[in-house]
Task: inverse folding
């Protein structure tokens, strides 16, 4: 850290990592460490992922956020945001989610894409992208935050790996080449009551289109999607808070469903 700036990505990442590991929320880092540009927030995110890696959790994919065009406009952004998925965060359909390993969980209904090849063509289109996707699955992202009361700024959210937590994957879909991703709808049930509805319009008009944006963005950044990577599409509807004892069911219509419980 030099005398002209207080921007300290390592210090910010240490605060976030310690909060995540201790399950004791920390204060916002954007003001404390003078994070006032989006790329600075991504630099902190990279430092945070390094700390998880050193602790034994490697990155296994990517997640999209802020895929709703209206939300982007409200935040004065023209693109979505992204974070990383880490090893050990995955749960399968019907799983019991350990609430005591989360600080303040919330859930979102999404689609997951599993890649069978690296994506290196900067001009790749949706058809070519889909040809390199081996599995498409319904997914429930279990978001979490290192901050008390959740992030108060965009920069805090991005620095904290875009409020990542766990995720639940459903069964792979058949004949993915025939799927109409722009037609997907989402209903989320908590303890049998429908609490959220959504559709592809909240995810750039199509989860596949959102995934295409990410593929091109990662090529431009020099960190392309690799074979074996998993990508979460971004939410198809509003986020919903959950807690211990909640039973959650995600219904994506013809795109499948899944359920889990928080213990």
Result:
């Amino acid at each position: 850290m030099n005398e002209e700036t207080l921007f300290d990505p390592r210090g910010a990442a240490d605060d976030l990592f310690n909060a995540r590991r201790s399950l004791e929320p920390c204060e916002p880092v954007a003001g404390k460490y003078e994070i006032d540009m989006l790329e600075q927030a991504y630099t902190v995110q990279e430092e945070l992922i390094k700390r998880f890696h050193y602790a034994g959790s490697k990155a296994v994919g990517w997640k999209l956020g802020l895929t709703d065009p209206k939300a982007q406009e409200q935040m004065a952004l023209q693109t979505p945001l992204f974070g990383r998925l880490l090893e050990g965060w995955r749960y399968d359909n019907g799983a019991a989610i350990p609430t005591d390993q989360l600080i303040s969980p919330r859930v979102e209904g999404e689609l997951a894409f599993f890649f069978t090849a690296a994506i290196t063509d900067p001009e790749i289109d949706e058809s070519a992208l889909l040809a390199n996707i081996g599995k498409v699955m319904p997914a429930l992202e279990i978001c979490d935050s290192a901050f008390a009361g959740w992030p108060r700024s965009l920069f805090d959210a991005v620095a904290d790996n875009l409020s990542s937590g766990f995720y639940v994957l459903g069964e792979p879909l058949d004949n993915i080449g025939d799927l109409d991703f722009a037609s997907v709808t989402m209903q989320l049930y908590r303890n049998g009551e429908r609490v959220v509805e959504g559709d592809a319009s909240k995810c750039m008009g199509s989860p596949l289109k959102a995934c295409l944006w990410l593929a091109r963005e990662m090529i431009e950044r020099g960190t392309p999607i690799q074979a074996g990577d998993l990508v979460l599409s971004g939410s198809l509807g509003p986020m919903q808070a959950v807690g211990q004892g909640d039973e959650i069911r995600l219904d994506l219509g013809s795109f499948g469903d899944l359920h889990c419980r928080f213990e």
Q: What stands out?
A: The chain is about 25% helix and 25% strand.
